[in-house]
């Protein structure tokens, strides 16, 4: 029997791509709703649900997934620490794949960011993250940018909250502090997604980057995760687990 995949947020651009990728992967679209649809009915009709909606709905959807014992693929960005904690609690009951980006290349970027964070001490190398997205994006910095910052901080043995986040510098800010990770968010046109991580010291600079040309890469990755998660026990996973890097 074909895997039945439900879509939360089907009316958006990502939802339409997800429907196409579900069909291409040989799965069945169990249903799709917008933000005001019947989410409990969708979970009941699905083997797994993909959520690309809004941070404000993440906690409710995680709760519905846990209550219905339906695995969840969560691609919503901009979650607060409290919202992420709710998702993690749901993952005690069901398998959840929660990723800042479902592009395989971004998972590789995260792995490199963590290794570079460990190798390049903050006393000598300032870490800065620059990202650009389409003009319709509502959150900044992007979830992928935050994921990069967390990877760098993790490599340095700390959390992003502990090392600090400098975003939106403006005016007479004084010299750059040692340790915090800087973020710059650019918005314009229909840029799908561009992220660069820079480590800059007094005598050198290292830059690693990722650029998405087509939103479909996220849909393909999410459908891949939906198939993968069906064989997993309850737990909180991300794309590095899906592509075999964990």
UniProtKB/TrEMBL annotation:
A GO CC term attached to the entry: cytoplasm
Family to which this protein belongs: Belongs to the DapB family.
Function: Catalyzes the conversion of 4-hydroxy-tetrahydrodipicolinate (HTPA) to tetrahydrodipicolinate.
Keywords recorded for this protein, A-Z: Amino-acid biosynthesis, Cytoplasm, Diaminopimelate biosynthesis, Lysine biosynthesis, NAD, NADP, Oxidoreductase
Domain Dihydrodipicolinate reductase C-terminal: 105-243
InterPro entries listed in its UniProt record: DapB_C, DapB_N, DapB_N_CS, DHDPR_bac, NAD(P)-bd_dom_sf
Keyword Calcium appears in the UniProt entry: no
Catalytic reaction equation(s): (S)-2,3,4,5-tetrahydrodipicolinate + NAD(+) + H2O = (2S,4S)-4-hydroxy-2,3,4,5-tetrahydrodipicolinate + NADH + H(+); (S)-2,3,4,5-tetrahydrodipicolinate + NADP(+) + H2O = (2S,4S)-4-hydroxy-2,3,4,5-tetrahydrodipicolinate + NADPH + H(+)
Binding site for (S)-2,3,4,5-tetrahydrodipicolinate: 134, 143-144
Presence of keyword Amino-acid biosynthesis: yes
Protein name as annotated: 4-hydroxy-tetrahydrodipicolinate reductase
BP term (GO), one: diaminopimelate biosynthetic process
Residues noted as binding NAD(+) in the record, renumbered to the chain: 9-14, 75-77, 99-102
Xref: PROSITE patterns: DAPB
């Amino acid at each position: 029997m074909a895997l039945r995949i439900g879509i939360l947020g089907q009316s958006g651009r990502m939802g339409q791509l997800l429907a196409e990728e579900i069909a291409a992967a040989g799965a069945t679209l169990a249903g799709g709703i917008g933000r005001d649809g019947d989410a409990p009915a969708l979970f009941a009709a699905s083997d797994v649900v993909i959520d690309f909606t809004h941070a404000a709905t993440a906690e409710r959807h995680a709760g519905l997934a846990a209550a219905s014992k339906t695995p969840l693929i969560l691609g919503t960005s901009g979650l607060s620490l409290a919202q992420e904690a709710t998702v993690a609690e749901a993952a005690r009951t069901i398998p959840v794949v929660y990723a800042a980006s479902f592009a395989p290349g971004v998972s590789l970027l995260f792995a490199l960011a963590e290794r570079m964070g460990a190798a390049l001490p903050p006393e000598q190398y300032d870490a800065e993250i620059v990202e650009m997205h389409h003009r319709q994006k509502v959150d900044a910095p992007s979830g992928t940018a935050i994921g990069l910052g967390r990877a760098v901080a993790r490599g340095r043995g700390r959390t992003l909250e502990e090392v600090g986040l400098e975003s939106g510098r403006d005016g007479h800010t004084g010299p750059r502090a040692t340790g915090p990770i800087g973020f710059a968010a650019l918005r314009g046109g229909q840029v799908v997604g561009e992220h660069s991580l820079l480590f800059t010291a007094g005598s050198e600079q290292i830059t690693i980057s990722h650029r998405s040309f087509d939103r479909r890469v996220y849909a393909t990755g999410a459908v891949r995760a939906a198939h993968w998660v069906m064989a997993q026990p309850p737990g909180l996973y991300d794309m590095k687990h899906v592509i075999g890097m964990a």
